[in-house]
Amino acid sequence: MPLSPLRLRLAAGFALAFGAGLALLAALALGYLWRESHRRLDARLDGVARGVLRAVARELRETPDSSLAYVGAEVAKEWPRTSDAWVIVDARGTRRATTDTGDDKRRVLAGRSVGVDGHFDVTGGGPDLRVVPADGLLPRRGGPDEPFRVLAWGSTEGIEGDTELLATALALASPLIIIASLVAGYVLAGGVLRPVGELGAAMAAVGADDLSHRLPAPAGRDELAVLALEFNRLLERLDAAQRRNRGFVRDAAHQIRTPLTLVLGEAAHELAARESSTQRMRATLQRIGTAAEQMRRRVDELFLLAEAEAGAHIELGDDVELDGLALECTELMRARAMALGRTLALGTIEPVAVRGNEALLREALLELLENGCRHGGDGAPVTTEVAASDGEVTVRVRNALAQEGAEAQARDGLGLPIVGWIARGHGGRLESVREPGAHVARIVLPLDRLP
After folding, report:
1. Nearest by Cα to 97 from 152, 156, 169
2. Could you give the CA distance from residue 201 to residue 89 in angstroms, rounded to a whole number?
3. Which of 85, 193, 405, 430 is deepest in the core (most CB within 10 A)?
């Protein structure tokens, strides 16, 4: 089985993070060991120095008025032999007594200045030494007390050796630990990525012809569950878009089939005629032209419907005078109304202007007039009105009811959805109401201003 690059990257990241954590932990451990060892050494040497001061005080009680050298020598004789040593010096820095017989006392005295306060280190010429001072006073009768200082020291070689040993052990073990963490991370990444592989297999099972399939959402609200839910929402949107596309294709075929059949029928009928005349051919071409114009209009409507169903944004960059638009559309539709046996009229037309898309508002009003001419009755002309009130402007198209009732007004499968989309794109709405003996279609828009 080939290695997974993703699992390797995750394992490498895990090993890198683990190595960085290990390095930080090692640095903290070494720092703590060094500091704690020095603190304990300082505490031990401070105890030695103060113990010497107590021993000097005890000797002075037993032998008053003794010299510092005599008292120090007596204390040195009784002091137990350990790895630590000490020296007593007077105010001028002269050695008076010590437990060390080697070179360490000379190094300590050479590295010490009288004005030094606190702990200090002595390096060079041998193992490094840690020195802790303690000050005392030697009582004198009839004169001032004599100051002296006790310097206790111990070697830091053990501390340095332990620290170096631990650092070496960590340096040797770190590569092995990182390699082990890399292997462990690769194994753990396989378990973590297993649900991702299952989701991938479920995604691969989704076919282009069946978008109703949904991924199983893992329990909880982790990243994988969110991914599955978002993918399911994407499938829902794609499924809805596919249904819209199929419906659009069906509508397109239905709307274009009738005028196309008329064009083909007229052309075949004329071609099959044994005799023809100019008048007859002109009449045939006129019928073909009418059918072609109807087909062109249906194609334009289909494009608008596709934009409407896709939720396309309408650009509102025109200052549209609705009164002039009503007059223009009425003139454009007179020939069409006469062909359908209807008449057009203008009712109350108020001078109103709105901010919008002039071409789409023209298309909407023409569609309402077309709808009124095709589905209206013979009782009254198809009337257009424009009126403003309460911050809104209303464009009305009124027509008489046909014999089959107001329900026939909604037979057109493309026009009214397009008009509704145009109205909503302008922040308004399309209303269809029935009045006594008449049907009224209204486009209600927010009023921007009056000219």
Report:
1. 152
2. 86
3. 85
Out of 1.10.287.130, 3.40.190.10, 1.20.1250.20, 3.40.50.300, select the CATH number for domain 232-309. Answer: 1.10.287.130
Q: In this structure, are residues 14 and 181 in contact, taking their beta carbons and an 8 Å threshold?
A: yes
Total residue count of the chain as it appears in this document: 451
CA distances in angstroms from 172 to 27, 30, 178, 404, 405, listed in the order given: 15, 15, 11, 96, 95
Share of the chain above pLDDT 90, in %: 20
Instruction: Print the SS3 string covering 88-140.
Output: EEECCCCEEEECCCCCHHHHHHHHCCCCCCCCEEECCCCCCEEEEEEEEEECC
More confident residue, 145 or 194: 145
**Measured between alpha carbons, how far is 34 from 26 in angstroms, rounded to an integer?**
12
At residue 406, the pLDDT reads 43
Question: Dihedral of the CA atoms 63, 69, 72, 74 (nearest 10)?
Answer: -60
pLDDT of residue 410: 46
- Predicted local distance difference test score (pLDDT) of residue 294: 67
pTM of the model: 0.47
Q: Which two tokens stand for residue 325?
A: 């638009």
Residue boundaries of the structural domains of the chain? 5-163, 232-309, 318-446
Report the Cα–Cα distance between both ends of the chain, in Å, rounded. 78
Rounded mean pLDDT, 148-162: 88
For 5-163, which CATH superfamily applies?
PAS domain (3.30.450.20)
Confidence of residue 1 (pLDDT cuts 50, 70, 90): low
